[in-house]
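Internal ticket #5521
Category: modeling
Description: The requester needs a full-assembly model to guide mutagenesis choices. All entity lines are attached below as received. Residue total reported by intake: 866.
Assigned to: D.W.
Attached entities:
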Amino acid sequence: MCTDLIYTSRAMRILHKIFVSLKSAIILIAILTTLSILGTLVPQNLDAVEYIRRFPRIGHWILSLGFDNMYRSAPFQTCLWLLSISTLACVMTRWKSTYRKLSARLEKANGKEIKAYEAGRSLSGVLNSNWQDKFDKLKTDENGVMIGLKTSGKISLFGGMCIHIGLLFVLAGGLVGVYLGVEMVVRGSKGDIVPIAPVAAVRAARDADRLARAARNIREFSSEDPRLNELREQIEALHTQYKSGMASPAFRIGFDELWVENYQAPDGRTMGVKSWNSRVRFIDENHESEPVTVMVNQPVSYGDYTFYQSSWNKFYRRVQLKVEFVGDASASSQLAVDTSVFPKNIELKLKEPFNSDWSPFELVMVDFMPDFRIINDRFVSVSSELNNPAAMIVAYDHDGNIVGRAWAFPEDRMSLAGHVSNMPFRFTFVSAEPEYESGMQMAHDPGTPLVWLGCILFTFGMIMSFYVPYREKWLLVYPNGSAYIAISGNRSANLFSDDLLMLEQQLTETDKEPSQHV
Amino acid sequence: MYETWIFGFSMVCYILAFVGFSANISLDRRNLYMPSRAVAWAGVFAALVALAMRWQSAGHPPLSNMYESLVTLSTFIAFAGLVFTRNQPLPMLEAGTCVTSILMFGVASVFSTDVKPLIPVLQSYWLHLHVSLAFVGESLFAIAFILSYLYCFRKIMTDSAEKSNFADFREKIACYSVVVGMPVAFIAGMILLARYLSLHPSYSERWLGLVWGVILPACVAMVVLILLVWMYRGTVHKGVEKWLPDADSLDKMIYRAIALGYPLFTVGGLIFGMVWANKAWGRYWGWDPKETWALITFLVYSIYLHVRLARGWNGTWTACLSIVGFIVTMFTLFGVNYLISGLHSYAN
C-alpha cells in the first residue's frame, strides 16, 4: 500500500514535471503544426476508396491514423488535450511566480541578484537628501545594505498569464463546440415554410452522418464486418430521433421574399452580385416574429440558432414553350390531332404533369438546364444563367409508359432537337422566369462565448506582455555610503540605459533652485 | 489608371533608394544615407497615394485580390522598414526592405490590375480590420526576416575573418543554408508560380512577365552579388563590420520586430478573421486551408517567442525560426491560394 502510494506520487511528480516543462509545450506545438500542415495537404473527408485510389501506398495509413479527418483524429485531439493540460500547468506555475513578484519582490531580493543585472552601475555622485522618496519600498538586509525598489508597469506581469488563460478558454470553447455544437443548411424558396428541428435532433443527425461515413469506410474493406450491424442500429436510432425532432420542430422559418442586388455599370450592365437577401419570419407554436432580413455578414438569431446567408441558388421551375405539330415523328403516325391549334404556347412546371386537350399524352418536363453543355457524354448545366437553355420533356401514355422524349431549345438552336426528339410535337424554348432558393447556414455553438472571452484575454495578455514595459528600479546603499543602481524588467538591458541615466540624475541632483538664464 | 503610373514612380524611388543605400555601404559615403532615405520615403508616400486613389475609385480598400494585396503589403514593408530604422540607421535593412518591396511589386504586376466589385462576403468592415492588421503584422515579420538574413550573413562574414565565430558546425551549415538557400528558394518559388500561371489560360502570357521581370533579373543579381562578395570579401567584411550592428544587437532587433508583429498578426489575422468568419459563414473556425496556415504561422512565431523568452535561446537558431516563420507567412499568402483550394480562393 505504502509502496503504491510512493509510486503514484512519483508518477504524479514526473507527469507534473512533463506538463510544466516548456520543452513539452514546444514539442506539442511543433507536433500540432506538423499535423495541421498534413491536414491541409491530405484531402479531407473523402470516402475510403478515394484514399486508396489516390494514395495507393499510404492510403491505409491515412485511414487507420484518422488523417482523412485530421482535425477530429485521435492524434490531433490528443495533442490538443495535452496542450490544454500543459497550458493549465503553465498558468498555475506562472501564478505562483507572479504572486511572488507582486507580493514579496523586495523581501526576496538580495544584493548579489541586483548586482548581476546587466543594466546597473555604481553611483558616481553623492545621494541627495530626498532619495528615499524615489522608492516605493526600502529594506535593510543582514549585511546592513539598504535596498530600495520602485516598480512600474506591474500589469504586464499578468500578460503571460492572460495569454495562457485566454488560450485555455479558446481550447475549451473549441472542444465544447466540437461536442455540443451543430451546423446545418436550410434551403427555401419564396413562400416555403421549413421546419427547424430542435438542437438535440440536429445533433443526432450530425452524429448519424459521422457514423454513416465510418460505416461506409468499413464496408469498403469488409462488407461482413460485425461492427456494421452495430453501426446500422445506432444510425437508425439517431435517424429516428432526428425524424421525431422534425415532426415536432422547435419552430418554422418562412421564406417571405428573396432577392438579389447586382452592381450596375454606368452603361446599365450588371457587374456581378452585390448582395443576396432573404426576408424571413420565424414561426413557433404561439408566436410569429416580425419579418427580418438576413444578408451575408448580417446573421439573425432566433431560438437556439443563428442563421447566416451562406449560399444562393437560381433555378427555373416554370418554363414557357412553343409547341408545333410535326406529322412525321414516329409517335405521331396513328394520332388524330387538330393541327389548326398549333403553334401553341404552354407553360410547363418542372417535374409536374401537364395534360391538354390537344395531346393524348401526359407531358412532364423532367429537367431544365439553363446553360446546357455535353461534357464527358453527360448533359450538364454549367451556370444558372440562361445562356443555352434546354428543357427535357417526356411523354407518358395513360398507363404511365414512356412513349416519347423531346428536347426544347431556343429557336436558333432547334436544329439540335431533331436528333433527340421522337414525339409528334416540336417544343421551342420561349422564356423562363428565374426563381431563387436561399441557402442559410444555421448554427448553434455553445462554446462561442468561451472562445470570444479567450480571444479578449489573449489580446489583453499580448498588449500587457509586449507593449507595457515592466521596470524594477533598484538602489543598493552600502554601509560605507557608496551606492549602486540597477534596472531590470521585461525588456532587453540596452533599452534601460536612458532610464539608468535618468535614475542617477534623480538620485544625485542637488536641491538647488534652478538658475535663471536670460 | 493614374495609380499604375504612381506605383511605377514609387518603384523607381525604391530602386534609386536601393542604389543609394548600396552606394552608401559599399563606397562608404555617409552623405548618401539621408538622401536615399528621403527617396525611399517619397516612394512610400507615392505608393500610399496610389493605394488611396485605388481605394477611392474602387470603393473598397485595395485588399481584395492578389494584385492589391501584394502592392499593399509591399508598401507596408517599405514603410515598416523606414519606421523601424528611424532612430538607428541601418542601411542594409533599408536596402533589404526596398528589394523586398520591388520584388513583391514585380510579382504583383503579373496579376490582373482590374478593379472588380467586391463579392458579397467581402463587403464588411472586417475586411479593413482583418486584412490590413494582418498585413502590418506580416510586414514586421518581413523586417524580422531581412534582419535574420543579415544576422546569418554577418555570422558568415565574421567567421570568414576570424575563423572561430560559429559555436558548432551545424550553426555554420544553418547560416550558409539561409544566406544561399533563401535566394535559391525565392527563385524556385517564382519558377513554380510561372509554371502554374503558364498552365492556366486565364493568365495568358503573364507568366512571361514573371520570367523576364522577376526571375531573370533576380538570377543575374544573385550571381553578380555572389561573385562581388567573393571577389571583394575583405571590403565587404569591413563594410559589414561598419554598417551592420553586432550579431547580438541584430538578434535583439529580430525579437523586437517579431514582438511587434506577433500581436498584430494574431489579433488581425486570427482573431478578427475568426470574428468575421463567424459573421459570414456561421462558424469562427472551419479548418479552411487559409485559416489553418494562418494558425501554423501563429504557432511558428509562438515557438520562436517561447524558446527565446522562456528558454533563453537566441542567435542563429532563433534567426532560423524567424526565417521559417516568414516562409510560412508567404506560403499562407501565396501557396495556399494557388496550391490548395478553399473558402479563401477568391483571393486569387
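Resolution: model delivered.
Comment from assignee: DSSP finds eleven helices and no strands in chain B.
Ticket closed.
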